[in-house]
Specification:
The protein is an alpha+beta fold. 21% of the residues lie in helices and 27% in strands.
């Protein structure tokens, strides 16, 4: 298995891919941190902010103005743990935490960007935005076919300045065109939406230091999510429902994103709900219809569903 994947529901994207035995490609930040000691400083969010000239400091140094955004300096598990705005000196005092930081409050579009890098030079980009549901949950993500030249120029210059010597995949999280997080990995939720041959190209990047991928047929993709409510124990859907989802037109894959044999509280989930499944597809309406098929497996009172009366997706 060329990709070191912790989540069994994502192994489907990497099975039967040829890879040299010595090559290790991380999908977890903890692995990326250990395997890239020369560049693992990028997991220091305070250093990331300061590298861009943003106002930032550790808790203990009070902000000169408000609001600011507060978060842990290091958080290799993600999920926005203990992060949020501080709007006043009283806010700052009541939310003081050792090991946390504050930074300039950024505004604008929140974008996740995967990038293939060769010796600090960007060779390939793909950008994703999410449609929020509530409380840290997303209804679906859009994996955009379109380029973002201004953002790519900014991130490319940052890479050339700070990541010389690094070859591999990088994931950026940006708000308003500025980096809030950087990861030495890719978003393993939707590699099938990047197109045929992408995983093989990623393996060659790590094995040979070359990026060769025919991206001329890229198209918009969608990653549609089904959420349940916290406080329940869930079972995976039976084969007949899984098969019905996968037979749906434009559906590429289905991930049942939890372990049946582990208690719900052992899963890292957003505060609003428990992620049950992800459906990757090339047509949003088709993906939403496939989600409705999957819903039939779960008691309605256990599901956390989007407001269909106001969603154009469900009118299709």
């Amino acid at each position: 298995m060329p990709i070191c994947e912790a989540d069994p529901w994502r192994l489907q994207y990497f099975a039967n891919i040829s890879c040299p035995e010595h090559v290790r490609i991380p999908t977890e930040d903890s692995d990326a941190y250990l395997w890239n000691p020369s560049h693992n400083w990028i997991y220091d969010k305070l250093r990331i902010a300061l590298s861009q000239g943003l106002e930032a400091a550790p808790h203990g140094v009070p902000p000169s103005r408000y609001p600011v955004f507060s978060k842990p300096v290091f958080n290799l598990k993600g999920m926005g743990v203990e992060s949020g705005p501080l709007r006043s000196p009283q806010d700052y005092e009541s939310h003081y935490r050792p090991g946390h930081m504050w930074m300039t409050m950024l505004h604008g579009e929140h974008i996740s960007t995967d990038c293939a890098v060769v010796d600090g030079e960007a060779r390939w980009w793909r950008h994703t935005t999410g449609v929020p549901l509530s409380e840290g949950m997303f209804d679906y993500w859009i994996v955009h076919a379109a380029a973002r030249p201004q953002l790519e120029d900014y991130l490319g210059r940052w890479l050339r300045t700070h990541m010389r010597g690094y070859t591999g995949l990088v994931n950026f999280e940006t708000i308003g065109g500025r980096i809030i997080e950087c990861h030495m990995r890719f978003a393993d939720q939707w590699p099938d939406l990047y197109g045929a041959g992408w995983v093989e190209a990623a393996v060659r990047l790590y094995a040979e230091g070359l990026w060769q991928f025919d991206d001329s047929h890229r198209r918009d993709g969608y990653s549609v999510v089904l959420f349940g409510r916290h406080g329940h124990r869930y079972r995976h859907p039976p084969k007949e429902i899984v098969d019905a989802v996968l037979r749906s037109p434009s559906v590429l894959s289905l991930q049942n994103t939890y372990h049946e044999d582990r208690p719900p509280e052992a899963h890292a989930m957003p505060p609003g709900g428990f992620r049950l499944a992800i459906i990757n597809c090339t047509d949003l309406a088709a993906g939403s219809r496939a989600r409705r098929i999957l819903e039939k497996h779960y008691p309605p009172h256990q599901l956390f569903l989007p407001d269909r009366e106001h969603s154009a997706v469900y009118s299709a």
